[in-house]
Amino acid sequence: GFVVFATLVVTVSLILILVVGPRHGQTNILVYITICSVIGALSVSCVKGLGIAIKEFLAGKAVLNHPLFWLLLFSLLLCVSTQINYLNRALDIFNTSIVTPIYYVIFTTSVLTCSAILFKEWRHMAPDDVIGTFSGFLTIIVGIFLLHAFKDVNFTLANLPLALRKEERGVNGSLGGTYDCFGHQEETSPCLSEIQAPDSLPARRNGNLAAY
């Protein structure tokens, strides 16, 4: 299964690099990002293989004499250099806030697919663990898109809808009205006389309508 997956990834990458990239790479954001993402699945697999090889080497086994070690090392260098090349091209042409979330989603999906095929991790996972993994993955995806979508938006009190500010004034009583008074720079504010009249509040409490 992994051989079929790796062959498919290499074939798709070569088609995108040699055929689709020169024609649509400057206008379609998915071309260069897809190249980086699908090749990233192979690079992560190579890193895992090299990690196992280094562990065996530290255990005293003759790993350097095995051709698989050098094949993994060469494949890793080739994949990483290709990823950096086309990722920089995508960042030079398109906006970073658009490239980053799309690249993260496609790259992570490719890596999860490759790991599931190569290591068969999903066979030993309970159903609740599978649901939790997918839920966490979807949560991270939504969070990244929201962060990049609203990173340049500044929310202030003045940007809040008028209905919310009315509700806040209703809950806080007269505090909202006092806030509005100090929010205006004009000395002719309709509530300025109310603030300057110290006897108005006791008169109201005592029911003295004449003083009011």
From TrEMBL:
It is a multi-pass membrane protein. The keyword Transmembrane applies. Its main location: membrane. The keyword Transmembrane applies. InterPro entries: Mg_trans_NIPA. Keywords: Membrane, Transmembrane, Transmembrane helix. GO terms for cellular component: membrane. It is found in: Membrane. Pfam families: Mg_trans_NIPA. The chain crosses the membrane at residues 5-23, 29-47, 68-86, 98-119, 131-150. GO terms for molecular function: magnesium ion transmembrane transporter activity. PANTHER family: MAGNESIUM TRANSPORTER NIPA2, PTHR12570. Belongs to the NIPA family. This is NIPA2 protein.
